[in-house]
């Protein structure tokens, strides 16, 4: 029979080796084509923690007015509100917008645009938070036109996944 104390030492060595390999996770890699607005892929190596942010909608321009047709502004204003809130939520988690690896964007057709989604308005807001000199990382992204959100004035909802090494 094998020496029990040698077996314990072996397990301790294996555990230490495993912990040392995950203690310093490799950084997340954002792969993008030159000139692209979004990453074509994001590689999240083992040892990184994933953070899933629930879908968020914009805040009303005036908190006292949640019912008027323009209470939340246009798609760009709503997207700016969402990204601003997202940035604060990430900061509370010790993260930045640069840690975002995936965005899913739900756009409602804007009645002022003949029922078409305002992808350009969303993109103008997006470019203030991603791919900037201060924050060059681009997440992967999907955008969909949907029939509606919780309030008829809401034109956009965004959810995010972020990743960061431990």
UniProtKB/TrEMBL annotation:
According to the UniProt entry, its GO molecular function terms are: deaminase activity; endonuclease activity
Mind telling me which GO cellular component terms the entry cites?
A: cytosol
According to the lineage, what is the superkingdom? Answer: Bacteria
> What's in the keyword line of the UniProt record?
Endonuclease, Hydrolase, Nuclease, Signal
Leader peptide range in chain numbering: 1-25
Recorded hits in Gene3D superfamilies, A to Z, give: RutC-like
The record ties this protein, via InterPro entries, to: RidA_CS (IPR019897), RutC-like_sf (IPR035959), YjgF/YER057c/UK114 (IPR006175)
| Hydrolase as UniProt keyword | yes
The record's Pfam families line, in alphabetical order, gives:
Ribonuc_L-PSP
What family is this? Belongs to the RutC family.
Question: What name appears for this protein in its UniProt entry?
Answer: Endonuclease
The protein's organism comes out as Sphingobium chlorophenolicum
**Lineage of the species this protein comes from:** Bacteria, Pseudomonadati, Pseudomonadota, Alphaproteobacteria, Sphingomonadales
């Amino acid at each position: 029979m094998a020496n029990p104390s040698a077996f314990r030492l072996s397990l301790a060595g294996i555990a230490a080796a495993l912990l040392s390999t995950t203690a310093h996770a490799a950084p997340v890699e954002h792969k993008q084509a030159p000139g692209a607005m979004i990453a074509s892929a994001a590689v999240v190596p083992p040892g990184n923690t994933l953070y899933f942010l629930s879908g968020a909608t914009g805040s009303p321009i005036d908190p006292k007015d949640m019912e008027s047709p323009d209470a939340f502004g246009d798609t760009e204003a709503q997207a700016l509100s969402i990204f601003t809130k997202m940035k604060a939520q990430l900061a509370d988690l010790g993260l930045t917008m640069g840690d975002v690896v995936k965005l899913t964007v739900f756009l409602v057709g804007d009645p002022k645009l003949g029922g078409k989604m305002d992808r350009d308005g969303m993109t103008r807001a997006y470019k203030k938070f991603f791919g900037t000199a201060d924050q060059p990382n681009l997440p992967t992204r999907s955008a969909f036109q949907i029939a509606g959100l919780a309030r008829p004035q809401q034109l956009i909802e965004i959810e995010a996944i972020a990743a960061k090494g431990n």
